[in-house]
């Protein structure tokens, strides 16, 4: 995994686990927007939190309209050395000949992880931090942004230098320049269509040129747009967001691709590679950071959770068994056990683990959310309506930025006809938190129909249909629209009959 001026603006151990929890000191540092868990020193942990916060200020200054804070927590898992890092590294990067990475970003619907290696090589000590944070901010565009652009932006912003009174963005990368001058460039048509399955993304002898060329093209386009006061990159992003394929979008936004290829070659050999200077102060008050030591079992619980989200169920399960043997009341371990069971389709077991976490007074909004969502998903499971509603309200209180909790509470209230007005309000909040969600808008339409507001439901459902991403979603929108239209017709017929009788 190795930024563009975007109007709308994204990872994976089959080795035997050599868990490093015993005899190690672990720390948790909480800053206003990040949580750092590390077996490095306190100074290293504080520096990480500080630089993530400073980079957030840089993006806020560059893109004041951008939503910088996801509704899910951002956890930075910082490992002090290669040995510990490789026990958590994606399986795809462990094979012989694979790229050696110093960090990665892992995004799920309910949590964000950044895995970093503190002893990674390189002249820029924070390049991996900036690179992975860029991925985080671009993750909302995951359904349309091509891989070259994703990695090119991350490579561009990883070379940011934050100084006292200004910020130098997109400076030169000596490593990339060296690779580019030693290796034949990929045709742009190839570069634009590389995906996660491509050898250009994973194999060391091919991946290096992919990353380097993605960076060079982004650097060239950013610099040219800045100097010429053009918006080619913004235009390209806009076309991509409308689901145009990357090659056609590039031809329309950048012009002739053969000419662009030639210009890129010239730039690589003769370009000045100057940074873009941003006048901005990035002071961060680190006195607000909260630090506390973590017991080995607590650190193991965090690592197990990362492995579970990283699709390494067996390794996560083994580590969790050890954690729960030492402390059966470890709330985090119960939650992760619930996640593993849920992913395996064992809903009753998942509900049991999440119920246990909730009963242990979990402060995790996810535990409350999953307990309720699973209970609602399978009516055959023993559950209490009051506990489901209480858990959803607790989840919302613990994290008022997590849209799924509002959605599930709206569905719960609507299904039981408890309070349709509140259900409508909850679902509108979910939409405001995630405007791109088809399901949330569909649910708004269904709630409006339950309220007897057929005409308003039609308006919302037409908006939902434009967000459909599959034939199933399109069919669901059409079915709901038909129902809403039938409701309006029935209401109009009833009104006409009443007027006739009067």
Any overview of this molecule?
The chain has three domains: 26-278; 313-401, Tetratricopeptide repeat domain (Serine Threonine Protein Phosphatase 5, Tetratricopeptide repeat), CATH 1.25.40; 406-502, Serine Threonine Protein Phosphatase 5, Tetratricopeptide repeat. The protein has helices spanning 42-62, 82-86, 127-138, 147-158, 174-182, 188-191, 199-202, 204-228, 232-241, 246-254, 257-270, 296-309, 313-326, 331-343, 347-359, 365-377, 385-398, 403-415, 420-433, 438-450, 454-465, 471-501; strands spanning 26-30, 35-38, 74-79, 103-107, 112-117, 161-162, 167-169, 276-278, 290-294. The radius of gyration is 25 Å and the shape is globular. The chain has 502 residues and is an alpha+beta fold. Residues 1-21 have low confidence and may be disordered. α13 runs antiparallel to α14 (331-343), α18 (403-415) packs parallel to α20 and α20 (438-450) packs antiparallel against α21. It contains 22 helices and nine strands. A hairpin with a 4-residue loop joins β1 and β2 (35-38).
Tags for this model:
502 residues; alpha+beta; Serine Threonine Protein Phosphatase 5, Tetratricopeptide repeat; 6-stranded mixed β-sheet; 22 helices; 9 strands
Q: What is the element layout, followed by pairings?
A:
Elements: E1 26-30, E2 35-38, H1 42-62, E3 74-79, H2 82-86, E4 103-107, E5 112-117, H3 127-138, H4 147-158, E6 161-162, E7 167-169, H5 174-182, H6 188-191, H7 199-202, H8 204-228, H9 232-241, H10 246-254, H11 257-270, E8 276-278, E9 290-294, H12 296-309, H13 313-326, H14 331-343, H15 347-359, H16 365-377, H17 385-398, H18 403-415, H19 420-433, H20 438-450, H21 454-465, H22 471-501
Parallel strand pairs: 2-3, 3-5
Antiparallel strand pairs: 1-2, 1-9, 4-5, 6-7, 7-8
Helix pairs in contact: 3-4, 4-8, 5-8, 9-10, 12-13, 12-14, 13-14, 14-15, 14-16, 15-16, 16-17, 16-18, 17-18, 18-19, 18-20, 19-20, 20-21, 20-22, 21-22
